[in-house]
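pasting for the record
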Amino acid sequence: MRKLTRAFTGTAATGVAIIAAVGLAAAPAFATVSSAKVSGSTGTGGAFTATATSPTLTDSKTHVKLTCASATAAGTAPNGTYTAGAPTAIKVASLTSLAWSQCTISGIPFTVKANATPWSLNATGATSSGVTPGSITGVNASLSGACNATVTGTVTGTYSNTPHTLAINAGTLTVSGVSGLCLGLINNGDAVVYNANYVVTPATLAVNAT
């Protein structure tokens, strides 16, 4: 237990990052959206995949950071023009499966699993220079290992038509169901931040909102 405590404490002392994973830049609080057009989908039903390298999840209070070697996602984004949910969030895609590989906290392995899919990918503001502010709602993921916890809420960021990247870097994620050897470094009610840049395939997939 002393070794585990030292490992977690070392992470807390050095960490200030937030889960790096699928990149979405935070939308301004005043942003509104009236219409969103999806184009360039080539898969059946608008199927797409996405991959991120070195995503992270960081506890904003204790600064403990979970780092994964990679993350993948798959879903559907059918071509079309959408207005439902305006002016706050227009759904443009569904994330049906998500996975994270080789996740650790200070070298200690953890498993991350997505729950309650699909999650919704939404446009939350007008596109500017090919970049659309957005959110992913319905986020629900479990962490298991020496410490167990559930993370739920919303992440925010941007989708860039070029280079077809979904960037996640903010949101309102909260920890619950904490158990195991968490040692007070991950606590019920803590806010956590996920950071990731997902490169999307097909590269032709574009979102344009007004």
